[in-house]
Amino acid sequence: MIIAYGLERTLILESQNWQYHEGGWDRIFKSLSNSCTTADAVATVDWPGSHDSTVIRLPQVDRLSHRSQYLPLAVPEDLVNRLKIIHGNPIVWWIGQILKYVWKLQPRTTRYINYQMEKIGIEHPFVGIQVRRTDKLVNEAKFYSIEKYMDIVDEYYNSIELKTNFTKRRVYIATEDYSVITETKAKYPQYEILHNPNIPKIPKVNPIHSFDNIFDLILDIHILLRSNLLVCTLSSNLCRLLYTLMETNYLDGSANVISIDSVYWYHNQEYNKRKVILSHNAENAAEIDLIPGDIIDVDEYSLNGYSLGTNFRTKKTGWFPSFKVEVEIEVVKFPTYSNIDNKKTL
């Protein structure tokens, strides 16, 4: 969608045989366009095509032979100065607005979500946590104990209780492994533990790739987006989706999400750049030196206040204090669509 926006073209989504639902995208979400939904009668050319190409066929983002300049982490030039004032990471806001346009549910999907949310009984305040476990069975993703998540939840509720007489501690857990639910209930009896009632009792590998399970995934997403605080791992595709969708609910939704493992990144991005604003002298062999102006490609984030990255100047990789860098914004000139009458689009 962002490439189409940058090229001033209409995006047509072909979702036949979609891995998440046999009916395709339009059975779950509304079509991206009410009038332009097929290009069957027009000759297509493969990406990147040319300016004169009527229809350009885009492959999956990780199969692009020529990477578009409009892909994240690029931020539109006409928006960047305003975004820097109100947001700590403008690219997250920008992607969130694109997702807001795409994320339009069909009535049947909305009815399912509303019905299930009423059954679950969601009340505020509550903390949402997303725990991904079964991918361990496939690619040995790093394991994080439930205590790692709940330590942050405890801190959140402790801070609330210092200011109010609030006593009810409530958590919604989104997971594909029911043992996470039973473990949390046993270890944290003082909490009300809420969850999707359709979690399989026996863990399955990639359950969301089973037909109709996407409804439960969307249910989790909508509940987590309503949480007062979200704790997850930004190494997870779902956590990154939630992180950007949070921007549709808040001016700066990044403050409502805590990741226990990584900074935000976009699939197939070139770098995750940070600019050094304070110098740092390495205190041990695991750390790297920094001087103001250095550009760091960040790979990992730790809750102890340190990040892991590679210094472009020295070519060295190591840990450094996270507060000594700031987001390096990638600015790209996008079309501004000044020729469009906004009054006619409302």
Plain-language structure description:
With 346 residues, this protein is α/β, with parallel strands linked by helices. It has three domains: 2-71, no CATH class; 107-232, Rossmann fold (3-Layer(aba) Sandwich); 273-332, Roll (SH3 type barrels), CATH 2.30.30.40. The protein has helices at 2-7, 25-28, 77-86, 90-102, 107-120, 136-139, 146-163, 178-187, 214-225, 237-245, 342-345, and strands at 44-46, 55-57, 74-76, 127-131, 169-175, 191-195, 229-232, 257-259, 273-276, 295-301, 306-311, 317-321, 325-327, 330-332. The strands form four sheets. It has a five-stranded parallel β-sheet with strand order 6-5-4-7-8, with helices on both faces. It has a five-stranded antiparallel β-sheet with strand order 12-11-10-9-13, with no helix packed on it. Strands 1-2 form a two-stranded parallel ribbon. Helix 5 crosses helix 9. The radius of gyration is 22 Å and the shape is globular. The model has no long low-confidence stretch (mean pLDDT 89). This is Alpha-(1,6)-fucosyltransferase. Keywords: Glycosyltransferase, SH3 domain, Transferase. Residues 269-330 form the SH3 domain. Residues 132-133 are annotated as: Important for donor substrate binding.
